[in-house]
Amino acid sequence: MSSLLYLRGLKKYYPILGGILKRTVADVRAVDGVTFNIEKNECFGLVGESGCGKTTLGKTIIRLLNPNGGSAYFKPPPEVIEEIEKIEKSDPRSRRLRHLREQYDLAVFHGARLRFLRRKMQIVYQDPTTSLDPRMLVKDIVAEPLVAQGLSRGSETKKKIVEILEKVGLSETHLYRYPHEFSGGQRQRIAVARALVTQPEFIVLDEPTSSVDVSVRAQLLNLFQDLQKEFNLTYMFVSHDLSVVECISHRVAVMYLGKIVELAPTEEIFRNPLHPYAKALFASIPIPDPTKRKEQPPLLGEVPSPVNPPPGCRFNPRCPLTMDVCRKVEPKLIDVGHSHFVACHAVKSL
Amino acid sequence: MSSRWSEFKASLEPKVKEWKFMLKRLSESPLSIAGVAILSAFVVIAVFAPILAPPQGDDPFMIPRDWRILRVGVLEPIPPTQDHIFGTIENQYDLYYGCIWGTITAFRIGILVVAGALLIGLLIGMGAGYYGGITGEALMRFTDIIIAFPGLVLSMALTIALPNVMQVNLSLFICVFFALLSLTVLILRGNPRITAISGALFVITLLSYLYFPLMVNMSITNLDKVMVALVLVGWPGYARVIRGEVLRVRSEDYIEAARASGCSDLRIIMKHIIPNSVYPVLIMASLDTGAIVLSAAALSFLGLGADQGYADWGQIINMSQHWIGVTNVPLTEYLHAFLIPGFLIFMFVLAWNLLGDAVRDVLDPMIRRR
Amino acid sequence: MTTVQEEALLRIEDLVLRFYTYEGIVEALDGVNLNVLENETLGLVGETGCGKSVTSLATMVVVVSPGKIEKGRILLKNRDKMTNLLKQDDAFLRIIRGSYLSMVFQEPRAYLNPVYTVRDQIAEVLVVHKRKELLQTVLESLRTGRKEEGLKGSSFEMKTYERMLEKPNSFVTKILCKVPRSQRRLNEEVRKEVIRILMEMEIPDPDRVAEMYPHELSGGMAQRVVIAMALVCNPTLLIADEPTTNLDVTIQAQILNLVKRLQERSKSSVLYVTHDLGVVAQICDRVAVMYAGSIVETANVFDLFKKPSHPYTKALLESIPRPGKEFKSIPGTVPGLIDPPKGCRFHDRCAYAMEICRKMKPPLTEIEKKHFVACHLYGGKK
Asked: Do C319 and A284 touch (CB under 8 A)?
């Protein structure tokens, strides 16, 4: 399977300004060196709690935010990936690497190439009430990407919009209405239609079902799956709702304080989570079965802020398996078999 | 062709529904109905002014004088008679005529000044809000400086300072305008076609300036000076409000979504930010119109407004101020001279204030409903 | 409607609530029947718009206009007598709100005053409700202190406190209270109580947290503070309106565990309103399912998950996403409550709808011991 996206050490920091001259005194390290790839046509789940950086990562990938470091290669052929890995180890400053980055690294795209990228990568937000302009009619909202990019005009636009609306389960009668006249689930469909209208290849779904009712959630999830099959889409499904991620994703990555701590195929990771944080996270989901109650909360303490992450492994203050090395050295993401990657010293030594 | 028309009609439909909803809300508050009624009465008077008070002479805004009485040597205001329905004011200007045509002047002052202040405030506030950073800070500090001056004092100073006759180099003006336009469009990375066209126009006007400088002598009446002064004093309020709204709207999700869809900055500003941030400013504008007319009347009262004999309520009161506390004359002798125009100003400002309140009552829940 | 429950702490009978809005009359609650027993956690489950938050607000009688309670009774057990809260005056309600009956809301930081520290806010609740007990405690300690020193009579301080206890509303008392030195011991007593309740909420380093402002607190911490405010006077009934919906899942697990433990320890009751069936399964003893303004099923939590009887409950449980299985959703949408469907409000989405469902609203009937369903499928059974 070819990779749609190959991230290497992607970083996104938010500067904290202080003092009269507003200098950068510290950085909020929202995304601090993330490396993984997303295959074509897969649904990649990204889970974590608030402040872990998953939304920031999604927005950085599609260049709504500009990365501070690292690269994100878009549709690199497998040979190129190999070459990049080799060059980075041997000679990170080579001209060949720079040339490859100009070709494939969307972190350095600008101008016309960046505008072209916007067609291929889209995002669906969490709250459909605030992500749709309340003063625009539905037809203008859905047509906007086409009009802004100059992709079609006049009656052709209208045909395309109606086509897309029907694909997401709405109809032509909904064109001339304002968003506030619709229910939450329908608004989310309008947002999906807007994302689909430029025929993208990659869509970041940022908690798309968190703001809607349970009964509507299933409808939306069915819609996402159908659209993925029909349009050959690749998803990045960002969520804190682990049960939904378990059902829709092919692979899942767990993020903590800006770093990926575990990455594995869905079934594998939910059946056998290895990283202590992932274990505690999955154990914390309230299961809708009263016979399976937990006596103790799986994880104590607060989620720390990403401003001053602890040295070494970021999870060490709350980790039940903390060793000495955890306080000094940051663990790397390593393959422990079955495409299961974990970043933990305790697991490595097993 | 017919499909376009039906499409146009269909896209109007939801907007019509919104308007209907607004009007229904408006009709339920008696104060707003009162405000609208009074204002409509003034509009009717203004529209039918040529019929209600036929102009005599070439400038309809100069109040006709009663020469017969003047020849006799009577200069004081005369209470209402059959010839003069409202009576006359000092120097025998017909009060009725002045009041009727004064309505048009009042509307002119109110609407033009508010429109001007709104436009400038919009540009500056929008720029400061959207771009932020040093530009935004600089613009806002400049706004603060203007606000720091007491309004009435500053407008008086500006009225006096502005020249009565200006020699305007028209082609230079147009030249600069096109230069600014192309610069703005370039900065906002908008449509390259528009940039090219305005750039070309700039070059053409520049050349024409060098070859044929176009001088135009513009004479500015005192009333125009008052209006310009009020615009220059009034825009900071709008700038501040707009900037606040733009800051709020800028951080909304749909702006980011528009950027993800590939919209340029110009498009985001025109299609997303302006329609969503303009409501509080509209409310402010409707409330402000009454205040502006009042300020203009105050300036006229102080002698800085229109020339003597111009049909302007403030000017009429200015001429009548000597007759307010005159002793050894029956009380009702000169009352009409200042009470009637004063009452008209009062009602006009009241109508605009009621309308502004009504607009705010209607728009607030609509904003919140979204 | 239901059989008489001797141990019922709260009984809501046939509550009808309407909102008179511009768009029309919203029939928010259409005859709600709910019982909260002593020493239990009752879960109130439903989707957005079903009326569960409105029910919890109505129980505290804090319904704001344009809402009006049209019919029904809200009976609260008060010293072995059931009092109808709707018929009580403001003074009585003010006494029981916060001390007997308290509430925790969804967004903790919205319900904390941003300009007061945590200590001040918890102290406010204490001062309003437990003034007498605090004063007595202070007086006791002062009296024993004086006895140890061998002095007789009362000091100026003691006289002030005694006066505050006996004549709290007199003019002199009010002036005396303004003297800061006279309030010192009382304030210390209050401070001790605040630290005690913060420790009970398992907040680490309570001295430091007590001096913090709400914006300095994380979501989980803020929610613990709000719960502390609600529990500081040991209420008999705590109403929790989706308190963990906005929190991270690990923090949610901690808070759920805390609430359950506190409820069991103090033998009070909790009415837990939520839309998450997982949460319900974790901490509730009994569950009431709500749809479009009325209760459709009430049962013991094990019975509800094993044998859901109402079609809505069944559909709700089926729509929980399970890996490997297809996503099942409930067809249609939640009805707008301005012009609700006649008869049973679920009939247009129900797979088992019959003719009678369109015409008549089914009453809540007991189909098994302590398992109530409002559905015509079970009519006539007892």
From this structure: no
Question: Which tens digits make up the pLDDT trace of B60-90?
Answer: 888 888 888 878 877 778 888 877 888 888 8
Inform me whether the C-beta atom of residue A261 falls under 8 Å from chain C C-beta atoms: no
Option in C250, C276, C305 nearest A290 (CB):
C305
Structure pTM?
0.81
> What number is the average pLDDT over the span C345-370?
85
ipTM value greater than 0.90: no
Q: Is C251 on the interface with A (CB under 8 A)?
A: yes
**Sign, CA torsion B322/B325/B330/B334:** positive
**CA nearest A145: which of A160, A155, A135?**
A160
In the predicted structure, residue C239 carries a pLDDT above the cut 90 = yes
Rounded Cα–Cα distance for residues C367 and C318 (Å): 22
Quick check: A144 and B252 CB within 8 A?
Answer: no
> For residue A278, what is the enclosing H or E element?
helix A276-284
**Closest residue to A137, CB basis, from B11, B254, B259:** B11
CA distance A43 to A247: 10
Helix and strand numbers (H, E) in chain C are 14, 12
Average per-residue pLDDT in chain A? 87
Beta strands at C41-45 and C67-78: parallel, antiparallel or unpaired:
unpaired
Instruction: Give the pLDDT confidence score for residue B2 in this predicted structure.
Output: 61
Which chains does A contact via 3+ CB–CB distances below 8 A? B, C
Give the chain B residue nearest A60 (alpha carbons).
B260
Beta strands A234-239 and A43-47: pairing type? parallel
The answer to whether residue C334 neighbours chain A at the CB level (below 8 Å) is yes
Residues of B in Cβ contact (< 8 Å) with A139:
11
Q: How many CB atoms lie within 10 A of CB B291?
A: 18
List, in order, residues 6 or more apart from A20 with CB less than 8 Å away: none
Helix or strand (DSSP H, E) at C148:
helix C131-149
Q: What is the mean pLDDT of chain C?
A: 85
**Confidence label for C61 from pLDDT (cuts 50, 70 and 90):** confident
Closest to A118 (Cα-Cα) out of B147, B260, B185:
B260
pLDDT per position as a tens digit, C291-308: 988 899 999 999 999 989
| Cβ–Cβ contact C329 with A under 8 A | yes
